[in-house]
Amino acid sequence: MTDSPLRRLSELRAVIEGFGARYAAIRAAKDASQITILRAILRRLTAALRQRNYPAFRDADFELHATVMAMADVPHLRDIWQTAWNGLKNIHQQGFDECIPDPRVLMGEHDHLVDTISRGDPAAAEDAARCHIEASWFRKTKHESAATTNGSGPFHRAAAHITSHLHCPVRLSEVAGKVAFTSPRNLSRLFRQHYGLGFQPYLQKLRLQKAAELLCTTRLPVATIARRVGYRDVSRFGEHFKRQFHTQPGRWRKQHFHQM
Hints:
Layout: H1 5-30, H2 33-50, H3 54-72, H4 77-98, H5 103-118, H6 122-145, H7 154-164, H8 172-180, H9 184-195, H10 199-217, H11 222-228, H12 234-245, H13 249-256
Helix pairs in contact: 1-3, 1-4, 1-5, 1-6, 2-3, 2-5, 3-4, 4-6, 5-6, 6-7, 7-8, 8-9, 10-12
């Protein structure tokens, strides 16, 4: 599944949507009128999830992404994106129907995408779009992995899950039981074997590396970046960041910032 044609098509969609979100953010910095439209669609998404009206949610989801592509104002981009969307439509609908994601996670992803575009931050918008597509694909493949012990193995399933869920609560027991299909003790052993770190230290390192990247390439506030990599306590995030990089997040940004 990792290198299947559909997986490559999903990667292409992530590139297209990242490109579109980048230019939508550039346009939003000059003309914020379409942000009102995006926020109205977000409200429809929220209402549909609360009502468990999943057909309405899928319709609004399509409209949101299509609006972002149109907002980018790049010739033929929406048509190219539509082709990729149509190619993946069935498997995304099947994945949603068979394994309904946590509504809070879904809304968090969409909220973050619209927020980064409305801020006029191209790099942050591109990252948000690409991460959203990666997470959507992983939800599909995670469900398939539950039905078979073949494929990538417990370590690789867990590592892929962590990478696409840095902004969510991630617990060893849940990842071991629901994603890797092994014991917490064995999964922690596998992480030490591959990375020289246990599960939690590796997760923290990955979150802080992602935070450092966002500080270097986006204008997102430090508090927003902290939440985006799974920290609810900004002070704790600052403590961990300083321990890892020997400087505070704000100073790191001043030293390393480069707008992509």
